[in-house]
Design goal:
Organism: Terrimonas rubra
Pfam families: HTH_18
Protein name: Helix-turn-helix domain-containing protein
Keywords: Transcription, Transcription regulation
InterPro entries: Homeodomain-like_sf (IPR009057), HTH_AraC (IPR018060)
Helix content: 25-40%
Strand order of the largest sheet: 1-8-3-6-9
Order of helices and strands: HEEEEEEEEHEHHHHHHHHH
Radius of gyration: 19 Å
Largest sheet: 5 strands, antiparallel
Shape: globular
Number of strands: 9
CATH architecture of one domain: Sandwich
Amino acid sequence: MKLQFYIPENDTLKQFIEGYYFIADDDPKRTEEYLTFPNNYSIVTINLNSDFTFAENRISIVPSAKKNIHASLVYNYTVPIIVYYEKPIREITIYFKPLGINRFVNNVETMFSSSQMVEFTPGFSDFKEEMSRIFHIVDVQCQRKELEAYWLSKLIEKDLSAIENILADIESNMKIADIAQKNNISRKHLYKMVYKYLGKSPMDYRKIFRFRNALRNKGKVKNLTELSYENDFYDQPHLVKDFKTLTKSSPHSFFRNVNTELKNVWRFM
């Protein structure tokens, strides 16, 4: 299944949404399966006329006889997830940047408190109706325009400067205790803040942040030792350990099978 990953055309949305894609595949005899690897995005997937199940790190999406709109939110996983499709399928998937979804949804803290994947219920009275309308637009450029206009209409003005500063410190590899001290809060309160806005612990966020940086920077270094030190791993064994945790394979095996030059590294089978 070849997908086009779109960057938002709207400059405001670019601040909060990494990108999105559409799937429209009517072949009734085909199935497809792929792995998606841990990242720090909040991923909203909307399906038309589908049944959606999640169990044991496996997402299954199959056609439904019922006319429906089903939306899910995946936000916290530290091992690969298998995604399985039965076709025909209609899907819109949106990648919100870290903290990005907080700019559109007021009840995200409730969703984050459930599990690594939940039904996405943003509290918009027109959500399912508008998503159904967008699904039935034939022209992709028109779909893009309408999808972006919809999310732009839901934008909420919020002061997130405190958690933005904490997130910047986590990404800079500052010690958690030092981040708490810098912001005049306890470590316990720091963890609560990060869970509230990101749905995961500071350490899980940092581990995934380092991993994703390593993917982006692989082509700039000569070997795994350089890759380790350039991306804030303690040493090469630390990098190997994290890769085995997050991908279930060694770095050598991962890079042999994944084209890290792609903008959106998400498949590996």
